[in-house]
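Record passed on here:
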Amino acid sequence: MSETTAAERHRRRMQRHKEIVDARIAHADQDCGVLVVNTGNGKGKSSAAFGMVARALGHGMQVAVVQFIKGSFATGEESFFRRFPELQYHVMGEGFTWETQDAERDRQAALAAWEKATSFLTDPAYDMVVLDELNIALKLRLLPLDAVLDALQNRPFHQHAIVTGRAAPPELIEIADTVTEMRPLKHAFDAGIRAQKGIEL
């Protein structure tokens, strides 16, 4: 096959592909808040959420972050994002449950975090609300699932909500607009490398 023929075939394929993509873009004409769920056993669920926080701040949006479970160690994202006055950042957990070893204490911390979260989910001044590790609180039955689903579905029309954590319940996956499952292939921790600043911390 000559180079001219190969180039022409490539051009025709890309033209067909462009027509398909353009049609899908034209069909996606809704402008509204979306519910994003990042779940799975792989690394990157919270990291992806904070990438969206950075995007939102770049657009001048008002953002709130409520972290469930986490709370016993400082992270780079917390130190960085607290610099932004348009971001409310609340670390509401008391640490991983195997560290606290107190089910009632964990439940009270989760309920306090959820109360804070609902204040943002009902406030139209916030364009994005991140509920980091909420899935873990749901998995451990620290919060009533029906109340969480109701609040997420009845948030202001324009407001984006991002939920992270392993083991997202099927009911949450069902109502979400975008769901990504992180799947582990390798992890440095398995090779004896501790959590690193800039990677996990």
Notes: The first helix runs from residue 3 to 27. The first strand starts at residue 35 and ends at 39.
